């Protein structure tokens, strides 16, 4: 579970604080530094940047250890070293994790951007420096699994054909950590990354990240159906994370229910930055990637992906939290559904949904991007609603999903993983009346599920 209990919101004088004489800090870091938020380091007597975390001392410790390890790739080594030198807390650093320190490695799934495994990390992630023992305190046990085994359970994301990595290949993880830093500065978090390892057989590198034991939002929609106040906390969480991404002039690019992960019932985190990029950066090879029900109509028609496109996806997620089912899961995800979305078709409003909620949701999925709210506006709204409609945290008072709850049945031609969409030209020709839609077009508008790492 994330240790977020020490987060304290800064005052309004945040932006007026000057830099210290020996470090260059952002406003949030400077606030912590000047207000001794986490006390003083017992060794250098400088302010800690996080609970039991002295950035100055820890950077030197990591640097002294650089010669003791290597990934075998200079770009990965440099990347890991930079995170260790700049980490303001233990969630902003990566480690090189030898593959033999991982055990019980088991296949979980194939996603849009790689193969996913679970494993036990024998050492566990770094927590803080132990001044008395002069070594790192590590978290080595987090959960019991059903098979009775213990350990620090992690997720491994295999980077296909990654035996030779350059700077561009690491872009997803650099953006993830950049957004993570900004999220922490705004008192929230993305799914944390822990390090990189390499499969000695395939030679493919693997990113090691936090295991979200409660699964994705898609796996938990039924719970929201019976505990409707949960959605206000959850949407407050992800809107703040989205705002942290957007404030860096970045877009997530693949915002859907499978990329939102639960650590607990009240902590929902954004993951998977495979399509994250600067707002000004065009689509790679003019390709449109994603899960069809969450792709904004203007993007389907070939226009650039903007922050407003992420907001459209957010609106679809809002609907799912009222319906308890994935959007458009009962129809084929083909050219026909793309046409309907571009023509203004949206999921049917669930009877009894709060009118203010409906109004905001409909603004999010408006056909005109400029009419959609910003992530900051969403965060402010859900902050208020979360206070007004608090989540029930007493487990005995929460409503369990009934045993006879009908299983969600998805159409065999629906798809919940990211794919490459290649029919913007055809789509625009049909919408403009220049050509008719043919039956064979419905199945041929997609390429296969993405097998490569962008």
From TrEMBL:
Care to name a GO molecular-function term for this sequence? protein serine/threonine kinase activity
Q: Where is the composition biased (Polar residues)?
A: 8-22
Domain Protein kinase, residue spans = 102-386
Sequence segments annotated as region (Disordered): 1-22
List the InterPro entries hit by this protein, alphabetically: Kinase-like_dom_sf (IPR011009), Prot_kinase_dom (IPR000719), Ser-Thr/Tyr_kinase_cat_dom (IPR001245), Ser/Thr_Kinases-Pseudokinases (IPR051681)
A Pfam family it matches: PK_Tyr_Ser-Thr
Instruction: Write down what this protein is called.
Output: Ypk2p
User: Which species expresses this protein natively?
Assistant: Rhizophagus irregularis (strain DAOM 197198w) (Glomus intraradices)
């Amino acid at each position: 579970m994330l240790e977020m209990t020490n987060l304290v919101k800064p005052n309004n004088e945040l932006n007026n604080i000057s830099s210290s004489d020996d470090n260059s800090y952002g406003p949030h870091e400077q606030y912590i530094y000047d207000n001794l938020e986490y006390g003083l380091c017992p060794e250098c007597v400088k302010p800690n940047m996080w609970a039991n975390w002295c950035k100055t001392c820890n950077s030197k410790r990591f640097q002294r250890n650089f010669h003791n390890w290597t990934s075998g790739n200079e770009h990965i080594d440099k990347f890991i070293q930079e995170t260790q030198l700049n980490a303001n807390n233990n969630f902003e650093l990566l480690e090189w994790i030898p593959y033999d320190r991982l055990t019980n490695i088991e296949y979980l799934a194939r996603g849009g951007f790689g193969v996913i495994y679970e494993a036990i990390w024998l050492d566990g992630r770094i927590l803080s420096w132990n001044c008395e023992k002069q070594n790192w305190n590590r978290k080595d046990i987090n959960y019991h699994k059903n098979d009775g085994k213990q350990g620090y359970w992690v997720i491994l994301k295999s980077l296909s054909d990654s035996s030779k990595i350059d700077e561009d290949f690491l872009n997803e993880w650099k953006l993830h950590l950049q957004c993570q830093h900004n999220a922490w500065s705004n008192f929230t978090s993305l799914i944390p990354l822990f390090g990189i390892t390499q499969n000695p057989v395939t030679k493919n590198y693997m990113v090691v990240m936090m295991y979200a034991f409660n699964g994705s939002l898609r796996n938990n929609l039924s719970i929201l159906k019976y505990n409707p106040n949960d959605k206000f906390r959850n949407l407050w969480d992800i809107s703040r994370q989205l705002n942290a991404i957007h404030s860096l002039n970045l877009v997530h690019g693949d915002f859907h229910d499978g990329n939102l992960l639960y650590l607990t019932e009240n902590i929902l985190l954004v993951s998977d930055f495979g399509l994250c990029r600067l707002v000004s950066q065009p689509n790679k090879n003019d390709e449109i990637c994603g899960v069809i029900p969450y792709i904004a109509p203007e993007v389907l028609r070939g226009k650039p992906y903007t922050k407003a496109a992420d907001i459209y996806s957010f609106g679809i997620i809002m609907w799912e939290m009222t319906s308890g089912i994935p959007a458009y899961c009962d129809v084929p995800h083909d050219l026909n559904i793309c046409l309907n979305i571009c023509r203004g078709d949206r999921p049917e409003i669930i009877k009894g949904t709060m009118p203010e909620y409906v109004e905001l949701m409909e603004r999010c999925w408006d056909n005109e991007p400029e009419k959609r709210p910003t992530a900051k506006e969403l965060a402010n709204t859900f902050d208020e609603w979360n206070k007004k409609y608090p989540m029930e945290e007493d487990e005995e008072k929460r409503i369990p999903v009934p045993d006879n709850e009908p299983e969600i049945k998805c159409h065999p031609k629906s798809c919940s993983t990211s794919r490459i969409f290649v029919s913007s030209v055809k789509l625009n020709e049909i919408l403009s009346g220049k050509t008719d839609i043919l039956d064979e077009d419905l199945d041929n508008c997609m390429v296969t599920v993405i097998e490569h790492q962008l």
